[in-house]
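[audit] Reproducing an earlier prediction to check determinism. Same input, same settings, fresh worker. If the tokens differ from the archived copy the diff job will pick it up downstream; this log only records the rerun itself.
[audit] input (120 residues):
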Amino acid sequence: MRTLILLALAVTAACTTQRIYPDPGSSPEAGAIVRADPAFSAGLPVQVRLRMAGDRRISLGASAIELPPGRHSLLVDCRVLESGVTRRFVVEADLEAGREYRLVARASSRNCDAVELIEQ
């Protein structure tokens, strides 16, 4: 039972959203959400992870970030499970307030070719 509780806590922690605002008083409605894959991939063949937004590091447990609208530079890792290859990409994004976006990989069984940001 203890193991099950610890596993549930780990999975919950891996699905957090990190808020990145220059002004701590900014309202959440004014932001945009960018989602990647969870920190614990549970065997996903390709995993996309957020590493940085501008000059701000993303915590290892965050699978999403909330940013103010505008232009942002996102540093993203893309890992292909079968080959073990990880490639790093910079994704330039123009985000709109109140919108949700997802980072999606274009990959083969051996390599990640690109990461794109799509609106959900």
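[audit] rerun output stored. Observation attached for the diff report: The chain is about 10% helix and 50% strand.
[audit] end
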